[in-house]
Amino acid sequence: MADDTPVAILDFGTNTTRLLITNGTSVEIRTHRVTGLGRGLGETGRLSEEGIGRVLDAVDEFKSLISENGAQRIRAVATSAARDAVNRADLFEPVSAALNHELELLSGEEEARYGFLGATAGLPSTDGPFLVIDIGGGSTEFSYGTHTAEIHRSVDMGSVRFMEQFFVNDPPKPEELSGAIQVARLHLDDIDRDHAIMGTAKSV
Protein backbone atom coordinates (compact mmCIF):
# COMPACT_ATOMS: atom_id res chain seq x y z
CA MET A 1 0.00 0.00 0.00
CA ALA A 2 1.40 3.40 -1.00
CA ASP A 3 2.32 5.84 1.75
CA ASP A 4 0.22 8.95 1.18
CA THR A 5 1.42 10.79 4.30
CA PRO A 6 1.96 14.45 3.34
CA VAL A 7 5.54 15.57 2.86
CA ALA A 8 6.68 19.18 3.32
CA ILE A 9 9.48 20.48 1.10
CA LEU A 10 11.08 23.84 1.89
CA ASP A 11 13.38 25.60 -0.56
CA PHE A 12 15.53 28.46 0.78
CA GLY A 13 16.62 30.41 -2.29
CA THR A 14 18.47 33.65 -2.90
CA ASN A 15 15.30 35.71 -3.25
CA THR A 16 12.42 33.43 -2.29
CA THR A 17 11.56 30.91 0.41
CA ARG A 18 9.13 28.27 -0.85
CA LEU A 19 6.92 25.61 0.71
CA LEU A 20 5.37 22.64 -1.07
CA ILE A 21 3.22 20.07 0.72
CA THR A 22 2.29 16.98 -1.28
CA ASN A 23 0.97 13.50 -0.62
CA GLY A 24 2.82 12.14 -3.63
CA THR A 25 -0.10 12.30 -6.03
CA SER A 26 -1.45 15.81 -5.53
CA VAL A 27 -0.20 19.16 -4.25
CA GLU A 28 -1.95 20.31 -1.09
CA ILE A 29 -0.03 23.54 -0.47
CA ARG A 30 2.22 25.55 -2.78
CA THR A 31 3.24 28.96 -1.47
CA HIS A 32 6.24 31.26 -1.15
CA ARG A 33 7.51 34.40 0.51
CA VAL A 34 9.97 36.89 -0.98
CA THR A 35 12.61 36.95 1.74
CA GLY A 36 15.61 38.42 -0.11
CA LEU A 37 18.10 36.20 1.67
CA GLY A 38 20.87 36.97 -0.83
CA ARG A 39 20.55 40.76 -0.91
CA GLY A 40 23.96 42.36 -0.43
CA LEU A 41 25.74 39.01 -0.59
CA GLY A 42 27.79 39.95 -3.64
CA GLU A 43 29.31 42.91 -1.81
CA THR A 44 29.81 41.43 1.66
CA GLY A 45 30.04 37.68 1.08
CA ARG A 46 27.65 37.27 4.00
CA LEU A 47 23.95 36.67 4.59
CA SER A 48 22.53 39.72 6.35
CA GLU A 49 20.80 39.57 9.72
CA GLU A 50 17.77 41.17 8.10
CA GLY A 51 17.59 38.53 5.37
CA ILE A 52 17.94 35.69 7.86
CA GLY A 53 15.25 37.32 9.99
CA ARG A 54 12.83 37.42 7.06
CA VAL A 55 13.52 33.75 6.37
CA LEU A 56 12.83 32.83 9.99
CA ASP A 57 9.55 34.76 9.87
CA ALA A 58 8.57 32.70 6.81
CA VAL A 59 9.57 29.48 8.59
CA ASP A 60 7.32 30.35 11.54
CA GLU A 61 4.43 30.89 9.14
CA PHE A 62 5.17 27.71 7.19
CA LYS A 63 5.38 25.61 10.35
CA SER A 64 1.71 26.32 10.99
CA LEU A 65 0.81 25.17 7.47
CA ILE A 66 2.92 22.04 7.89
CA SER A 67 1.16 21.19 11.15
CA GLU A 68 -2.32 21.96 9.83
CA ASN A 69 -1.78 19.67 6.84
CA GLY A 70 -0.35 16.79 8.85
CA ALA A 71 3.04 16.71 7.14
CA GLN A 72 5.31 14.69 9.40
CA ARG A 73 8.12 14.27 6.90
CA ILE A 74 10.19 17.32 5.97
CA ARG A 75 12.89 18.02 3.40
CA ALA A 76 14.54 21.43 3.69
CA VAL A 77 17.19 22.58 1.23
CA ALA A 78 19.19 25.75 0.62
CA THR A 79 20.70 26.79 -2.69
CA SER A 80 22.81 29.52 -4.30
CA ALA A 81 22.99 32.20 -1.59
CA ALA A 82 23.84 29.63 1.06
CA ARG A 83 26.47 28.08 -1.22
CA ASP A 84 28.22 31.44 -1.55
CA ALA A 85 27.91 32.78 2.00
CA VAL A 86 30.78 32.46 4.46
CA ASN A 87 28.29 32.63 7.35
CA ARG A 88 25.76 30.05 6.17
CA ALA A 89 25.78 28.54 9.67
CA ASP A 90 23.98 31.69 10.84
CA LEU A 91 21.08 30.52 8.67
CA PHE A 92 21.35 26.77 9.04
CA GLU A 93 21.41 26.61 12.82
CA PRO A 94 18.23 28.61 13.59
CA VAL A 95 16.29 27.16 10.64
CA SER A 96 17.20 23.58 11.59
CA ALA A 97 16.24 24.28 15.20
CA ALA A 98 12.92 25.87 14.22
CA LEU A 99 11.97 22.96 11.97
CA ASN A 100 13.49 20.31 14.23
CA HIS A 101 14.96 19.02 11.00
CA GLU A 102 18.35 19.52 9.38
CA LEU A 103 18.60 22.09 6.61
CA GLU A 104 20.63 20.66 3.70
CA LEU A 105 22.90 22.49 1.27
CA LEU A 106 22.35 21.50 -2.36
CA SER A 107 25.17 21.72 -4.85
CA GLY A 108 24.43 23.44 -8.14
CA GLU A 109 24.34 20.10 -9.95
CA GLU A 110 21.93 18.63 -7.40
CA GLU A 111 19.71 21.68 -7.79
CA ALA A 112 19.70 21.18 -11.57
CA ARG A 113 18.82 17.48 -11.27
CA TYR A 114 15.94 18.09 -8.87
CA GLY A 115 14.68 20.95 -11.02
CA PHE A 116 14.60 18.64 -14.02
CA LEU A 117 12.60 16.00 -12.17
CA GLY A 118 10.07 18.57 -10.97
CA ALA A 119 9.66 20.28 -14.33
CA THR A 120 9.23 17.08 -16.35
CA ALA A 121 7.10 15.09 -13.90
CA GLY A 122 3.99 13.91 -15.69
CA LEU A 123 5.32 14.65 -19.18
CA PRO A 124 5.38 11.68 -21.58
CA SER A 125 8.94 10.56 -22.27
CA THR A 126 8.05 10.35 -25.96
CA ASP A 127 7.97 14.16 -25.98
CA GLY A 128 11.62 14.27 -24.89
CA PRO A 129 14.42 14.90 -24.67
CA PHE A 130 13.80 18.01 -22.57
CA LEU A 131 15.88 21.07 -21.75
CA VAL A 132 14.96 22.66 -18.41
CA ILE A 133 16.23 26.16 -17.60
CA ASP A 134 15.61 27.29 -14.03
CA ILE A 135 16.42 30.98 -13.51
CA GLY A 136 16.81 31.82 -9.84
CA GLY A 137 17.97 34.77 -7.80
CA GLY A 138 21.60 33.69 -7.54
CA SER A 139 22.09 31.00 -10.17
CA THR A 140 20.59 29.45 -13.27
CA GLU A 141 20.42 25.69 -13.75
CA PHE A 142 20.42 23.91 -17.10
CA SER A 143 19.46 20.25 -17.31
CA TYR A 144 18.92 17.97 -20.29
CA GLY A 145 17.52 14.48 -20.64
CA THR A 146 14.47 12.32 -21.16
CA HIS A 147 13.81 10.25 -18.03
CA THR A 148 16.52 11.83 -15.87
CA ALA A 149 18.93 14.74 -16.22
CA GLU A 150 21.73 13.25 -18.29
CA ILE A 151 23.48 16.63 -18.43
CA HIS A 152 23.20 19.24 -15.68
CA ARG A 153 24.97 22.54 -15.13
CA SER A 154 24.62 25.43 -12.72
CA VAL A 155 26.05 28.88 -13.45
CA ASP A 156 26.33 32.02 -11.30
CA MET A 157 23.74 33.95 -13.26
CA GLY A 158 20.61 35.03 -11.39
CA SER A 159 18.22 37.95 -11.07
CA VAL A 160 19.45 39.23 -7.69
CA ARG A 161 23.10 38.59 -8.52
CA PHE A 162 22.86 40.50 -11.81
CA MET A 163 20.74 43.29 -10.34
CA GLU A 164 23.36 44.05 -7.71
CA GLN A 165 26.31 43.48 -10.01
CA PHE A 166 25.20 45.54 -13.00
CA PHE A 167 22.11 47.67 -12.42
CA VAL A 168 22.13 50.98 -10.55
CA ASN A 169 19.54 52.95 -12.49
CA ASP A 170 15.83 52.32 -13.13
CA PRO A 171 15.38 52.02 -16.02
CA PRO A 172 18.90 50.68 -16.53
CA LYS A 173 21.32 52.56 -18.73
CA PRO A 174 22.47 50.97 -22.01
CA GLU A 175 25.95 50.28 -20.63
CA GLU A 176 24.45 48.46 -17.64
CA LEU A 177 22.38 46.25 -19.91
CA SER A 178 25.38 45.68 -22.14
CA GLY A 179 27.51 44.49 -19.22
CA ALA A 180 24.86 42.05 -18.02
CA ILE A 181 24.23 40.71 -21.53
CA GLN A 182 27.95 40.22 -22.14
CA VAL A 183 28.40 38.11 -18.99
CA ALA A 184 25.23 36.13 -19.71
CA ARG A 185 26.49 35.35 -23.20
CA LEU A 186 29.81 34.12 -21.81
CA HIS A 187 27.96 31.69 -19.53
CA LEU A 188 25.73 30.53 -22.38
CA ASP A 189 28.67 30.15 -24.75
CA ASP A 190 30.40 27.91 -22.19
CA ILE A 191 27.34 25.68 -21.95
CA ASP A 192 26.83 25.62 -25.71
CA ARG A 193 30.47 24.65 -26.27
CA ASP A 194 30.43 21.91 -23.64
CA HIS A 195 26.95 20.55 -24.31
CA ALA A 196 25.92 21.36 -27.88
CA ILE A 197 23.54 18.38 -27.76
CA MET A 198 21.19 20.49 -25.61
CA GLY A 199 20.14 22.32 -28.74
CA THR A 200 18.14 19.27 -29.87
CA ALA A 201 15.86 19.28 -26.83
CA LYS A 202 12.42 20.71 -26.20
CA SER A 203 12.53 23.54 -23.65
CA VAL A 204 10.40 23.24 -20.52
What does it look like?
α2 (49-68) runs parallel beside α4. The chain folds into 2 domains: 7-105, ATPase, nucleotide binding domain (Nucleotidyltransferase, domain 5), CATH 3.30.420; 108-203, Nucleotidyltransferase, domain 5. 40% of the residues lie in helices and 25% in strands. The model has no long low-confidence stretch (mean pLDDT 93). The strands form 2 sheets. The protein has a 5-stranded mixed β-sheet with strand order 3-2-1-4-5. Strands 8-7-6-9 form a 4-stranded mixed β-sheet, covered by helices on one side. It starts with 6 loop residues before the first strand and ends with a strand. It has helices at 41-44, 49-68, 80-84, 89-99, 108-120, 159-166, 174-194; strands spanning 7-12, 16-22, 27-34, 73-78, 103-105, 130-135, 140-145, 149-155, 202-203. It is globular.
Task: Give a short summary of the structure.
The chain contains 7 helices and 9 strands. It is α/β, with parallel strands linked by helices and 204 residues long. The strands form 2 sheets. The protein has a 5-stranded mixed beta sheet with strand order 3-2-1-4-5.
